[in-house]
């Protein structure tokens, strides 16, 4: 009974907040109407007055910035041996925690482990969730260092385990599910496939429990060899979390892909998992600094095919939406079709004389693509633009919509979230946050700049890694 009363109280509180929000928006609308009447009367309207009114609405589909408790990001800061998880509160960005690693940081990623039935209403009587299991996405931070190690941390900074990767990891790709798979790309061009199992105390949270093994010298009553399941991992952190990582296979790359006896370094790495086709259908897309793209079967590391891009890759990573991967090539953006294992003939033409250094898709509008440039600007493209709305999608083209300035410094990386776009610039030691909820109707609103200064130390790498566990949602 008390639980029901608590839920009713929660519902009443949410209704009150919704009513307050509606009242606030109505006030904003009325104030904007007043400005509109003034403008129609031929009187110039101060743009700052309009910005002041619209800023009350806050970013991210109606959430006030002060109500957004955190960004689920890991931002690499310092001289390369420090690593921080950042909060954004009331318009300022402040570090939440700092992680110390064994050597200089090379790259990092946030791995979103998704337990079966995560979220309400998905459990069944047959498979009741253990009381110690995660009920939501578990974000694990993976940090690779120059000594060929990968350190795995919880989001609060607690170390889970350190794993010898056997190569210096420059890129990560990850897929959760029944069989979590971590793919690592190295400076030496190698691509490795790792199986992962996440434990909490004695229970498997995500992944498959190890199969029963034959116990040497022991037999059942019928004479068959006795089998026993391996015990849970003995090495757990203070929160009872354990992560078991095993090298599954190494990508089998033919000699024709080598350059001077060596594989070109991995620049981009992405995992494509077709819906409904099971884990065996997963494919890995790799781009290297020789301008080639290689596709592998994730099941065993066998290469499907490789092809060259028309222009060598200039972006620090690739962006994926559906079956399409975007790659910065010079001043333009080229595309790869993961399902067809081929490059797409169409491209997005950028601004001559600039270089695309990072790309990201909009989470709310997947046809919108952001391209960060070496001059500090961000270009916004509509990759499925149709002049005639009745025309078929086959006649869609890529159109440059507008340019958003981000501070004038070379952008290291950009990342799309639900309602936001982040960009980082190591030279200016800044992380910029843009509101993109109204990208269709108006230009991207500029919210935060130069507010992530960390003791005067610059960012390294491309600056941001974001959990994709909740659709890149700010939580």
TrEMBL record:
Residues 215-239 are annotated as: Disordered. Transmembrane segments: none annotated. This is Uncharacterized protein. It comes from the Eukaryota. InterPro entries: WD40/YVTN_repeat-like_dom_sf (IPR015943), WD40_repeat_dom_sf (IPR036322), WD40_rpt (IPR001680).
């Amino acid at each position: 009974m008390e639980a029901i009363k608590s839920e009713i109280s929660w519902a009443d509180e949410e209704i009150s907040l919704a009513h307050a929000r509606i009242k606030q928006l109505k006030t904003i609308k009325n104030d904007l109407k007043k400005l509109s009447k003034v403008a129609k009367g031929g009187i110039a309207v101060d743009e700052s007055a309009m910005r002041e009114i619209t800023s009350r609405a806050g970013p991210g589909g109606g959430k006030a910035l002060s109500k957004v408790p955190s960004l689920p990001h890991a931002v690499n800061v310092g001289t390369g041996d420090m690593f921080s998880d950042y909060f954004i509160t009331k318009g300022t960005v402040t570090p939440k925690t700092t992680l110390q690693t064994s050597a200089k940081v090379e790259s990092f990623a946030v791995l979103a482990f998704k337990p079966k039935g995560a979220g309400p209403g998905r459990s069944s009587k047959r498979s009741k969730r253990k009381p110690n299991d995660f009920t939501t996405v578990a974000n694990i931070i993976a940090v690779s260092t120059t000594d060929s190690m990968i350190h795995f941390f919880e989001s609060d900074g607690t170390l889970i385990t350190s794993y010898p990767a056997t190569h210096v990891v420059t890129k990560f790709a990850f897929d959760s599910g029944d069989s979590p798979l971590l793919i690592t790309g190295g400076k030496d061009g190698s691509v490795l496939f790792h199986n992962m199992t996440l434990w909490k105390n004695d229970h498997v949270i995500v992944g498959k429990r190890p199969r029963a093994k034959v116990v040497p010298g022991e037999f059942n009553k019928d004479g068959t060899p006795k089998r026993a399941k391996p015990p849970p991992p003995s090495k757990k952190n203070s929160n009872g979390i354990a992560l078991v990582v095993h090298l599954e296979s190494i990508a089998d790359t033919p000699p024709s892909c080598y350059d001077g006896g060596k594989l070109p370094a991995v620049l981009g790495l992405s995992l494509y998992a077709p819906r409904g086709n099971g884990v065996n259908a997963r494919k890995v897309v790799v781009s290297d600094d020789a301008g080639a793209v290689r596709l592998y079967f994730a099941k065993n590391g066998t290469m499907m095919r490789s092809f060259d891009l028309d222009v060598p890759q200039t972006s620090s990573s690739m962006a994926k939406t559906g079956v399409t991967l975007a790659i910065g090539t010079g001043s333009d953006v080229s595309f790869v079709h993961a399902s067809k294992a081929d490059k797409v003939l169409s491209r997005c033409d950028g601004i001559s004389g600039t270089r695309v250094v990072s790309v990201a898709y909009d989470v709310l509008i997947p046809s919108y693509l952001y391209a960060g440039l070496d001059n500090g600007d961000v270009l916004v493209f509509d990759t499925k633009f149709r002049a005639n709305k009745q025309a078929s999608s086959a006649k869609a083209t890529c159109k440059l919509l507008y340019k958003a300035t981000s501070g004038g410094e070379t952008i290291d990386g950009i990342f799309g979230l639900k309602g936001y776009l982040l960009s980082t610039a190591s030279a200016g030691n800044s992380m910029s946050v843009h509101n993109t909820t109204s990208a269709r109707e108006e230009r991207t609103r500029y919210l935060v700049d130069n507010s992530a200064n960390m003791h005067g130390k610059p960012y390294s790498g491309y600056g941001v890694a974001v959990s994709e566990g909740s659709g890149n949602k700010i939580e």
